[in-house]
Write a structure and sequence with these properties.
Layout (H helix, E strand, L loop, with lengths): L6 H14 L2 E5 L6 H5 L10 E6 L5 E5 L5 E5 L2 E6 L3 E10 L4 E14 L4 E4 L2 E5 L7
Antiparallel strand pairs: 1-2, 1-6, 2-5, 3-4, 4-9, 5-8, 6-7
Length: about 140
């Protein structure tokens, strides 16, 4: 049995992130809530944020996926300021005005951060693959 989804359907999900993400945070662990992604990592379980950066729709592009489907690319970001010292291993996409954690992804490689230092974050993709029949 064949499965199919129109690119507009996949783009709608990706464009929701693109149009509503106003902050990205680099986190020391995978946040499961807005507060965990938005509160600093001070050793307590309430927050994992090590760095933050303001973004808008111009910081993203939607295109064909690398293998199938569609992808949203967060373009390279410069001037990302660390608010705490630690090792970041996750990237969180936040809608600050609605206090929503939109998406979390594991970084390809962890990044050691030092409080008050600025960093460049390489481009990152969120990819939604085309559906496939179950084996």
């Amino acid at each position: 049995m064949a499965f199919s989804v129109h690119n507009d359907v996949l783009d709608a999900a990706l464009n929701y992130i693109k149009n509503n993400c106003t902050r990205i945070t680099l986190c020391s662990a995978a946040p499961t809530s807005f507060d965990e992604a938005n509160n600093e990592d001070d050793g307590s379980p309430e927050g994992y944020k090590l760095a933050e950066h303001t973004v808008d729709g111009d910081d993203f592009t939607v295109a064909a996926g690398d293998t199938s489907g569609r992808k949203l690319t967060l373009l390279q970001q410069t001037g990302v300021t660390a608010c705490d010292t630690g090792t970041a291993n996750h990237l969180a996409f936040l809608d600050v005005s609605s206090t929503k954690l939109l998406y979390v992804k594991e970084l390809a490689s962890s990044k050691a951060l030092t409080e008050s230092e600025t960093y460049t974050l390489a481009a990152n993709d969120i990819e939604i693959a085309d559906p496939q029949a179950e084996a």
